[in-house]
Sequence to fold (467 residues):
Amino acid sequence: MTTRVRFAPSPTGMFHVGGARSALFNWAVARRTGGRFVLRIEDTDQARNKPEWVTGIISALATIGISEADPAFEGPYFQSANADAHRAAAAQLYTSGRAYYCDCTREQVTERTGKPDAGYDGHCRERGLDYAQGRALRFRTPDDGETVVSDRIRGETAFPNRAIEDFVIARGDGTPLFLLANVVDDVDETITEVIRGEEHLSNTPKQQLMWEALGHTPPVWAHLPVIVNEKRQKLSKRRDKVALEDYIEEGYLPDAVVNYLMLLGWGPRDSGPEIRPYPELEAQFDISDVTKASAFFDVAKLKAFNGEYIRALDVPAFIDACQPWLHAPRAPWTEDAYDPAVFATVAPLAQSRIAVLGEITGYVDFLFLDEPVTDEAAWSKGMKPGADDMLEAAAKELAAASWNAEAIRAAIETAATAQGLKMGKAQAPVRVAVTGRTIGLPLFESLEVLGKDRTLTRIEAARAKLA
Ligand code: GLU
Fold:
């Protein structure tokens, strides 16, 4: 039997890194088993859905390598397009006696049970109500026995059927609820393995009962561990940066993100390196190796991964990858001030220093802006007492120097010695005067590329500001 997995996002306007992890694990299973990855958009919550969100999901998937063009990809299917089947399933469950209509209000249930959050008490079970507007359809859970959920990550869990309340599967206006629609779609799409987030664990015995009541063999389940932040809180869009798009915007490379996400709750069996391309991870992927323990989304580690991926690019690829940050609107300089040849000269120096592509702008802006950026914190850090004397001495030596990194180094060294300063201390005011920053590319190469005139003008301007 072909393995058929699915990724079933509800469109909400942004693509969560947790969703990306679920998609990747499903993708790895589909590809590794020669199976299919079905994309289903759970778009029944019409009030919240927008068509562009669907385009967003498809392009986010493409970003992490899940391409519509791959033979393993199937869909997208839309939950809303299967509404007739949802209603038919509800009718089937009613006709076969596996579901019944109920007109109880929450208040009535509370009054009868004496507990505000008690499950449904079964009041309408034997009343034999027909459908009428306002009557919800409830699934009749078995009175005895147990529902054994077999989960490839968590093993087998037996749920006593008594403990599963008769849950609502269609609202009083006849529209099916998520629990039902999700099962019917999985049945219709002949899904064999449901791999999804742990937050759906409590739905699983109910859904498995519906699979059986509809006459089908339930799928194999796998519930992925929750993803937490450094405070061990579940990642949330209000608190944490969770949108895949935000990471890409900042200059995370998709390959690095994919590599990192693949390791959130899973690791390859061979004890090879963590940093390795997706195909190598896919080749070892087995859903039963996923852990139950929550997975820490360590942004610092992701950043370190990204730095490694940046350094692994060849220089032309690095230059290409930087392009979005070298032009408006992200770059603060004008297009005519940008010189690709100048950038190409410093690119290898920057490549070894940045961890996120977006950092490139701050490393090279001194080359393309008329004046260095004003950063008061950098200024006070670089311009310690004696800075003006150092700048004066440096200007004098640099004016006489021939213009290459080695000669520039010698000139600054001479000036430093004259001032009784170590090279490290001596460079700081020069760096801040010329680049506006305290951290950056190697100083002598930076000055060489900037040119003698602009270097001397900036040192003069800094001295004027100090005076
Ligand atoms: N639409 C559901 C969600 O976004 C998916 C549920 C499932 O995977 O079964 O969480």
